[in-house]
Every structure is written in structure tokens, then in C-alpha cells.
Input
Amino acid sequence: MGLLIAGNWKMNGLGDRLGEVSAVAECARTTSGHNDVLICVPSTLITRAVEAGAGLVVIGGEDCGAGVSGAFTGDISAEMLKDAGASAVIVGHSERRRNHNETDAMVATKAVAARRAGLAVIICIGETQAQRDEGAALSACSAQIAASLPVDLEFSEGSAIAYEPLWAIGTGRVPTAGEIVEVHQSIRQRLTDLMGDRNHGLRILYGGSVTAENAESILELPQVDGVLVGGASLRSHDFNGIIRAADAVTRHSGDPLRRLRHAYETDR
Ligand code: PGA
Output
């Protein structure tokens, strides 16, 4: 399992932006192929983005409803995303949690819905600035994982937990390497407690102000299995820089060695 480079376009993008997806596909074609590239787009673009991605960029949705169908005006089910061509979906992004009052329990039902439809699922968690200031970052993330992750679920390859500190999203502020390592290690430990060995199939991504400039220093941390990128995923020039940084990291470290070291560290 290589690194996962995931983009999140949020509420951005009309049909005239699809050339960006084609340009990302072109970059993916020229890199080593060890890593996975995913772009989560507004539902209106999914079908066309799948075409533009040419099998080199996996396309996902940004949220899904919990039910299969019914009287939920404006909601889009995981089955509908799948039908449109999506292979993955983000659930529990902090903007959904904050702007739509989504609770951990709702996020968990959405994760179940995603797997029911056969989509890989990316579950987002992360502490607020106040929680970090109080020294409660690890406990906040741990509580969110316990309540947002349906532990009995079979997670397909491509599924992930995304650690996105709220104070780092769209702010240009990035935690130190030490802070990222500390939280990722704690998340891995929590996943091991909750799921046992099955947690090895679940990647842990970092998200929040990732750019082409800082991606390599984040991705070379062995506890980081990929990144979730907002702003810098909108332009292929920037996103391709992140894809190339990931490629450089996997070439340098050699994927099998990286995984071994990772397994060793989580077993301690
Ligand atoms: P950002 O957003 O990269 O623009 O900080 C990340 C996210 O919200 O997933």
C-alpha cells in the first residue's frame, strides 16, 4: 500500500475546470505508480471527472446521506455517488460537522452507508485550536475516532482516517513534524485498540494547509500514509507538485521498508 494523495475541491469547480483533472491524470501517468491519487469533487462533476481522470485518478464524493433513498430533499446517497462513478467519499469533514451540525454518530452512519455502497471512506477528525491550547488534542481525536468509526466495518483498501486540525485548515498554519507524529501515533494506537490487526489496512492521512512546498517534509514522516488537500488541489500545477513529492518519498524510502518500520513502531 503506497501513499494516498487525496484532493478535496469543496464547493469549487464548474465543468470548465475538468482540464485540471486531466492534467493530474497526466502527472500520475508519469510517476512511479506506487501511490494512489484521489480527487473528491462536487457531485455535479463526478461523472465527467471520472472520464477526465482516465483511470489514473480515482474520483470521490465529498459527503453522502446515510440512507439509500427516500424523502431527504437535496441529499445524495452513497449508492448515487457510486452510480455516478465515484469510488470513494469523505465523511465527517470539519466543515460538515460545523456548518451542518454533523455529530460523530451521524458520521459513523455515513461511513456505514459508504461501505454498504462499496465506496472507500475517508473519515475526518481533528482538534480545535482551543483543544490544542488546553493540551487536549490527543484526547479530542481519540474520542472522535471512538465515536465516528464503526469498528466492525470491513474497510476496503483506499479507506482512511484523515487527521485535520481545524486550526490548520485553510490557514497556512501547519503543525510541527513532532505534533503530526504524536497525533498520528496516538490515532494508530487507538485504531489498534478498537480494531486489532485489521487497522493495518486503514491509512492515516494528514490534512490542513498542505502545499507542494511542504508536502515532502510531511509525507516523509513514517506515521503519515498520505495527505488530504483542499486549496492546493484546485490547480493541477500545485496538486501535481504534491504528487511528485509523494513519489520522491516512496522512491527514497522504498515502500516495503517504510511499512515495516511503521508496523514495528505501532507494535511497541
Ligand atoms: P486546506 O483544506 O488544504 O485548504 O487547508 C484541507 C481540507 O479541508 O481538507
In short: The chain has one domain: 4-267. The pocket of 2-phosphoglycolic acid is lined by residues 8, 164, 169-170, 207-210, 228-232 (CB under 6 Å).
